Amino acid sequence: MRDLIPILKALNYSRTAPLLFVLQIALTFMILVNAAYMALHKHSLLSRPSGLDEQHTFYVLTNLPSEATARGADIDQDLQAISNLSGVTSASVTSGIPLTGWGRFLEVATQADSEYDTFSGYYGGDNSLLETMGLELIAGEGFSQTPLFAETDGFRIATEIIITQALAQALYPDDWRQVVGQTIYINKRPQQVRGVVKTLQAAWSFWAVVEHSVLAPVIETSEYVYYLVRTEPGQQAEVMAQTIDYLMRRHGRKVEELQTFEQVKQQSYQAEYSASMTLLWVVVCLSLVTALGVFGQARFAVTRRRRQIGIRRALGAQKEHIVGYFMLENALLTVLGIGLGCIAAMLLNVQFSNWFELAVVPVEFLVIGGACMLLLGQAATLAPAFRAASVSPAITTRLGELR
To answer: Which pTM value belongs to this model?
Structure first.
């Protein structure tokens, strides 16, 4: 630290270049921290669980060409046939598939005379729907009544429901387990909560309440139905082929959609994935540009001070002292730039939070970002610092006056 005073005097003697360097570090740090945080936030959306057994589940959307009164029997026949296929763990009919972008949302309230407390996605189906989705029941119990039938909008006739933990916490924030056995109001219709499942996402990944879902034992017999199928490990492709073969042997049947749930999730989060990768590349490229800028600034400082370095070498300074001098100088400027960058990053993040409803960058994220920026600056200064240490003391006799 004995070089601290000479460094401060040297920086004070020539203020413009150090000031520009500090501003560059501050601006870069501000952008890097916010870009890195947004990239990780986007990436975290990709890994959050949907609630389903994602690797072993697929769905098929098919038509029911029979009369409305006969569709219930057709559904029972289809489910019986698909369930008997080799490799099938469970099969169900459902009114919608999570994350496909198509579904119904409901208004949910705890009081009959209130407008609504929150919103939720909706899934109607048979009593095997929880098993087929692979949902984890964490409170209460599953459906006990025989499923009801409705041509559309099954939530209008449901009397008992199962909801997700996130929805229960929104309705009863003090103790979400109180919701079991309670009557809540779905689009102003009273329905009793029989159980709570840990996670089940709604149809829209971008929805603010995507974790809010309601399940009801109501089979919808509209012209098109979704069959959800859960398979044994390694059997999915074979079961999908057998399901299509079975449906195509039924008179008048068509298959509108056939997808694994992994494909559904990949398509649903495609925008978040693209944004995440773009931001990560911004972080990488900006880090590279910053490292080159630090390298250039340090190299310029070494070139400009060659006679000063030669004099110090002639007075007995060792090579490691010269290296330490430039490393310390870079560290001082970088820390000052990080300090200014922290203030700017927080101000920018507040604006992002207001505009895009993003979470505030955690303090530890700023600390880690600052440490990374400091290490980047030190790494970029190493080569010019060793170049300075190689300056011969004889250089003092060949160069002009000391500046």
So the answer is: 0.73
